[in-house]
Specification:
By secondary structure, the protein is an all-alpha fold. It has twelve helices and no strands. The protein is elongated and about 95 Å long. The protein starts with 11 loop residues before the first helix and ends with a helix. This is Glu-tRNA(Gln) amidotransferase GatDE subunit E.
Length: 207
């Protein structure tokens, strides 16, 4: 042993510090992704062992935590793998394009369906920006007034169904609205407006 060095005393404080410096175990990392980043356990497991894990953490650090991260993780892992199986050249998508799409998801300027359409297009046209692809595909988000006007028109065109089924016509009207608004409006917003417009239509009929 080296005689010029003082003996190293292993204290409880030193052990505690060492534990804090140690990287989390896979189980701890998965629990963190579930509790802190809004992921379900299955998606958290897939992400942890995926090549895009570091990119996900960079995006979360850049944009902050929130429910949007579940869609970001889905895009980076599950959607990418599914499209690769279908033969899409997902390796053409750059980190910058993923970050740009994540920003759109965070700002609620693109739907989950819209994300898939954009990535498919980018696989074959990697030189384009996310904004350029959204323009080409007509995926620019509609404002509340435009969404509301479309829903009112759908209800008017299906007035007989609404009058016969009442509030139970929600599913039919919602389906038609999402088909028409695909990729351009968030489902939760469409759902709220469909329900409100059906109730207003029925109230007006009674009045």
């Amino acid at each position: 042993p080296e005689t010029d060095l003082p003996p190293l005393v292993i204290t409880s404080e030193l052990l505690s510090s060492a534990k804090q410096l140690a990287p989390p175990t896979p189980k701890e990392a998965i629990q963190l992704l579930v509790s802190e980043y809004n992921l379900n356990e299955e998606l958290a497991k897939e992400l942890l062992f995926d090549e895009n894990y570091a990119l996900f953490m960079d995006i979360a650090k850049l944009l902050g935590k929130g429910s949007y991260l579940k869609t970001v993780a889905w895009m980076l892992v599950q959607l990418r793998k599914a499209l690769k199986r279908e033969g899409f050249q997902v390796e053409n998508i750059t980190k910058e394009q993923y970050v740009s799409l994540s920003q759109k998801i965070y700002e609620e300027k693109i739907t989950k369906e819209g994300v898939e359409e954009v990535i498919k297009y980018l696989c074959n046209n990697p030189s384009l920006s996310v904004d350029e692809v959204m323009d080409k595909l007509g995926l620019k988000p509609l404002d509340m007034e435009a969404i509301n006007a479309i829903i009112k028109k759908i209800i008017e065109e299906n007035a007989k169904i609404v009058e016969e089924k009442g509030e139970k016509a929600f599913g039919i009207i919602m389906g038609k609205a999402m088909e028409m608004l695909r990729g351009r409006a968030q489902g939760k917003i469409v759902s709220e407006l469909v329900r409100r417009n059906i109730n207003e239509y029925l109230s007006a009929k009674k009045g």
